[in-house]
Amino acid sequence: MNGDYSKFLQTFFEEVTEHLSVLESGLLSLEKNPDDVEVLNRIFRSVHTIKGAGPMFGFTAMSRFAHKVETLLDPLRNRKFSATRQIIDLLLESADCLNMLVEAAKNGTVIDENKTVLDLEARLETCMTVTAPAPGQKPAPGPSSAAPAPPAPVTSARQTYQISWTPGEDLFQRGLNPLKLLEEMGRLGTVTSCVLATSRLPDLADLDPERCYLSWTCTLETDYPRADIESVFEFTAPPGGLTITALSSSSPVAQSTQEPDPEPARSVVDKEDDRRLAEVFFGQKPDSLGAILVEQKAVTPAQLAKALDRQDTLRAKSKEQKAETSMRVDTEKVDKLVNLVRELAITQSMLSALGGHFEIKHLPILQERLLQLERNTQEIQERVMGIRMLPISTAFNRFPRLVRDLSAKVGKNIQLLISGEETELDRSVIESIGDPLTHLLRNACDHALEPPEERVASGKPEQGTIRLNAFHEGGKICITIEDDGRGLNRDKILAKAIEQRMITGNDTLSDDQVWALIFRPGFSTAEKLTDLSGRGVGMDVVKRNIEELSGIVTIKTVAGRGTIFTLKLPLTLAIIEGMTIRVGEDTYIVPLLSILESIQPKADMVKTLIGKGEVVNVRGVFYPIVRLYEVFDLQPEHKNPAEAILLILETEGERVVVMVDEILGQQQVVIKSIEENFRKVDGVAGATILGDGTVGLILDVRGLVKLARQEQSIAV
Amino acid sequence: MSRVILVVDDSPTMRGMVSHALNEAGFETKEAENGKDALIKLTMMEVGGTKPDVIVTDVNMPEMDGIELVREIRKLAAFKHVPVLVLTTDNTDEKKEVGRAAGATGWLVKPFDSELILKVIRKVLPQ
What we know:
The complex is a heterodimer. Chain A folds into five domains: about 5-130, Four Helix Bundle (Hemerythrin (Met), subunit A) (Up-down Bundle); about 160-285, no CATH class; about 330-385; about 390-570, 2-Layer Sandwich (Heat Shock Protein 90), CATH 3.30.565; about 575-715, SH3 type barrels (Roll). Chain A is elongated, with a radius of gyration of 37 Å. Helix content of chain A is about 40%, strand content about 20%. Chain A is built from 21 helices and 23 strands. Chain A is an alpha+beta fold. By secondary structure, chain B is α/β, with parallel strands linked by helices. Chain B has a single domain, classed as Rossmann fold (3-Layer(aba) Sandwich), CATH 3.40.50.2300. In chain B, about 45% of the residues lie in helices and about 20% in strands. Chain B has five helices and five strands. In chain B, strands 2-1-3-4-5 form a five-stranded parallel beta sheet, with helices on both faces. Classes of the chains: A alpha+beta, B alpha/beta. Chains A and B meet through helix 1, helix 2 and helix 8 of A and helix 1, strand 4, helix 4, strand 5 and helix 5 of B.
């Protein structure tokens, strides 16, 4: 590889990732419509691109494998035969393998004689021969080396050839200059004669100046093999338009035309492929260092290929770090942002013009401009955040395949319906929801959906359905996973929880509280362990993952009808909608997401219950009260709850009431970590800079609930 | 004035790399994503009174492939003399013959060698 292409490595990986997902989703849709030529063409192009671009970076194994896959796809898209289930299975496996090769390339691991790869390659070939006895397509040479191999003169003896060249009449129209080609030929050796034949010239009246009627006969003395002369004129003459005759030669081959030779008179047969890959019809020879070394017999071509491979791998490695931290952004988004910045600059210049000679009568204009500035800033903020947004399909893409494989594994017929995949959310959130969603889907396939017999027996369609849906709701994103399976079994869960000593038999629990039990660590009701799930790890991990994203999981279930898991997540982790509140002199921010309501209680609503501490009765339900000034040791304005304001907050299905002096207003805040700069502070999730430049602390609602619980237990 | 080359490829990686190699050598490049896009870009150039000195195109592309693009270009009065180099992984004689018949000027095989591309381009560049 010559030139510095390392900066394209990342583009390449991004592109390949897209192609791999095109490949997989294409194959899945092919399963339903095996003759969809559009899809076949699309996946063919994807594989083709991987094959073509891979070697540019030295990823020869990847490219070679892609080539094998392509060889099978080609007859499919040309309708030579149809994609059977077996072929699609094989192709899906190949897609996985290709993915593995891509990952290996990303990590700089060299995969040479990998068994999976070789095995699949063999199976792909077998598939070709079995399905299409006469593929009629000679496998194109695999790019076995990224290095352009040197077409060094192989024949040592100088030979003299007579070359008669009758180019096609369209020579000029194709932008070719015969003089340049003849000069090119001349560079191969010594031209001893060159005769121009004008016999084809028509009468002047019939002559089309754009056509070429000339032909040439030259004598060339050269050290280069015949193939090199051919390649000078390759493409310029119609078949039969080029004849090369050896005049004085020790070679038994007396004559050849441009038609393919049965066997080129060259000893290094396997180098032929390399040459053809790197050479074009003009017969240019690459003269890279490697080529020179090989030419001088300093290294063998194999050694060279290996060294180049290693070079590229090392190069790839050094770029790895960078590749992980950058992202690809829709140009449209960037363009809009640039426009906004332009608007901002205009507003700014208008403001400074105004400030230059400010008179008080201009105040309304100033206010108007400031309003404009505010709009600009807000929009820019939204757009900048938008840059971090990706459609959730990036996370959903892998699920059709997952469900397909799972349904085969558990012996159930399952369809996955996805909707709302265009819903956008922050890419860091997308990266983190993959695992919990995978787990929920696995559970649905494995446990929730009944085996076919059972479904038919209970009057349901044999095919189980899982719906995956995403939508925006009030500044949050909701993802629902809905199955039409057996639903959660209250009695079974209770029995299990009692057995696990999570609850006692005396506890009376609401349905929601029972469902919440499945998120406890170590909880599992599956009677038999399968390799999919049922090991009791999982649901608690799901919950933890979602909560790490400041999200919540809720369950709705109807026995015999199915279950819906709803995940609510913030659109982004960097900015939250907050409510600013005041306690004494200090300002705090409460995440809006967790505020259910705020009340000014009457004195008789607040009670102190034995064993529960201070509680407030809101429409018949008692909630524990946390006095914020006590938690943070502040001087409050009000110590009497009846004078203060109570915020009812919810997290993880638990509620807590926080007592504050005043609600100041709603504001978007950018979260800054305290932990990173200081240390973890209980009850505080982070900090932010408020409108007036001072620092405000963001309350950690989960921490406050815990605090409330601790107080309860102390009170006990 | 620097020479302009139109690079047609559906793969952003390939497009970027070819353009990069050409830019390094002092050529100005324009890019198009497929045959149809290339024809649009060419029309826009025609309106602007310019044209590319050389076109380098991939074969396998959505919308319109490279071979079809060559055929279309050869039909256009303004562009029929522009050299078109095909840059592809296809290396079979049949494919080359199809390209030649369509009116392609040259055939380059991927993975490409930038020096090779440059040499070929300099060779076919109109005087």
